[in-house]
Amino acid sequence: MIRTLRPLVLTAIVGSFLTACGTTGPSAPAIDNSAIGQPDFRAHTATYGVVYTLPKDVNDVLDARVYPALRQDLVRLGLQTEAQNVNIPHVTVVHIHSADPTTPQKMLKALPKPPAPIQLTLKNFYTTEAAKDAGRPWWLDLGIVKTGPGFESLMAYNTVTTAAMAPLRDGPLPRVTGPVYAKMGDAGKDLVKTVGVSGVNVVKDGKELRSHNPHNTLVYSMTPFTPALQASMNQVAAKFNTVLPNGIDTTFRNVSIVELAFSGNVTREIYRVSLVDGSVLDVATGKVLR
Q1: CB count in 10 Å sphere of residue 146
Q2: Which of 135, 168, 233, 272 is 20 to 30 A from 281 via CA?
Q3: Nearest to 127 by CA among 76, 64, 73, 174
Q4: Domains, the chain
């Protein structure tokens, strides 16, 4: 695993991915950090990401035991937009913002070799904010058990994929600018400046720094997260923890390049890469590219 490698080896691995991404070549976009520190969110054009879409066995459980009651709770709390939000269920590796429509093709070319299929357990519903007391956006998440070889493989792939994808951004993710950036700590602000997003694993001074918190998001919201709303949504999370006290065991067999909305919900799957044999599917055409 990446975490067990010596610092010089880590630096060499990540450096090779940065080179492969063309950080000094003509395909690298100009990175504009001028939105950082401004009072408002950066305007959103297009966000692309590398994610694991949830397997059918997980979606079947959520569809049967969580989503119907969750939608009722959201409507009861006046969150109609959140109840109708479109999302392809997933666990994120990394997101980047880029107005260049050819970014998904560049991401596929730069994508590090995926790991073998990942066995893990999704467990523990909870609410979270983009930055504490920023007000919005906020989410209701289903976490992942943070032990075992599957989790270690997932985290190691985040480190190298973040390094490979970050040079393809045109600036920071809009949702980590404005009021969110203002509420971040120094470590989060540094990640926004250097990789365009917070909450990812990076290598600094030859040492891997892990801030990635892999999870599946069930609710995306730009409604102000008032203390009253937070208390209500925490009750919703607690309820579902009694419904699924042991979580959901599963195996990730694909990683996908996708397009996302401002808050991070996946709106379109573009390329699907098999963790079993490395084959690549163009989702829109159904054509296997390799």
Answers
A1: 15
A2: 168
A3: 73
A4: 10-21+45-288 (3.90.1140.10)
Grouping H, G, I as helix, E, B as strand and the rest as coil, residue 116 is: coil
pTM metric for this prediction: 0.89
Q: How many CB atoms neighbour CB 215 within 10 A?
A: 19
Task: Give Rg (Cα) of the chain.
Answer: 18
Task: List the strands of the sheet with 254-260, edge to edge.
Answer: 248-252, 118-129, 138-144, 215-221, 90-97, 47-53, 254-260, 266-274, 280-282, 287-288
Convert 226-280 into a string of H (helix), E (strand) and C (coil).
CHHHHHHHHHHHHHHHHHCCCCEEEEECEEEEEEECCCCCEEEEEEEEECCCCCE
Q: Residue type at 171?
A: G
